[in-house]
Amino acid sequence: MGFFVLILVLFSLVMAQQLRFIPTQPYATQRGACIPAPAPRNPTEQSKWEEWPGYRERIAALAPHLSGEPDPVLLMPVQGVRVRQIWDSFGALRPGGRRHEGQDIFARRGTPVYSATEGYVLRMAYGPVGGLQIFVLGAGEKRYYYAHLERFAPGLREGDWVTPQTLLGYVGNTGIARGTPPHLHFGLYEGGRETCNYRALDPLPLLRDRDWQTLARR
């Protein structure tokens, strides 16, 4: 029995090092082959397809200024929240057959949201699903997604360099989250259409608590 328990523990430790992921539009990998995803099911998915070429060009322009190795840890983006307070909802089913491609971090409306990493502000926009949203391009070409914001930080612009001390915006419930308690949807993406490995990763195993008192004194 003791040997079996030891094997189970070791297996759990190994699996903990592997980030869960969800293959996303516009491509999915199946049995080693690259196959097109289904056609857009709604105007939101259609707009994402149409925006992708410009999005890829921005990534190509900014990536050489970043390290090729992804950040091994991410700092908690929502002020005052601890990692242990996050209820793991990555991969949970959503209306329309969608999977939840991130983690929801609940906090009072207007709570400051900071960048979890260094990187460049890749995109600031409003969408019917994510509401007010920001994408930050980090090391290793990882894209960090901050959604349902109430408002952006004053003066923040696309192309700005950010650090974990940079205020991005404030917790809200814009977009598809309207009517739900205020929260930040925090997502992590990698890959691209041309390499057939565009997918959502679970950011929770990488998140670490930060010293909010030190940040407040800056």
Q: What does this protein look like?
A:
The chain is globular, with a radius of gyration of 18 Å. It has 218 residues and is of the alpha+beta class. The chain has helices at 2-16, 43-62, 212-216, and strands at 21-23, 27-30, 33-36, 74-75, 103-106, 112-114, 119-127, 131-137, 143-152, 161-162, 167-171, 183-190, 199-201, 207-208. The longest helix has 20 residues, at 43-62. The termini are far apart. Helices cover 18% and strands 30% of the residues.
Helix/strand layout:
Blueprint: H1 2-16, E1 21-23, E2 27-30, E3 33-36, H2 43-62, E4 74-75, E5 103-106, E6 112-114, E7 119-127, E8 131-137, E9 143-152, E10 161-162, E11 167-171, E12 183-190, E13 199-201, E14 207-208, H3 212-216
Parallel strand pairs: 4-14
Antiparallel strand pairs: 1-13, 2-3, 5-12, 6-11, 7-8, 7-10, 8-9, 9-11, 9-12, 12-13
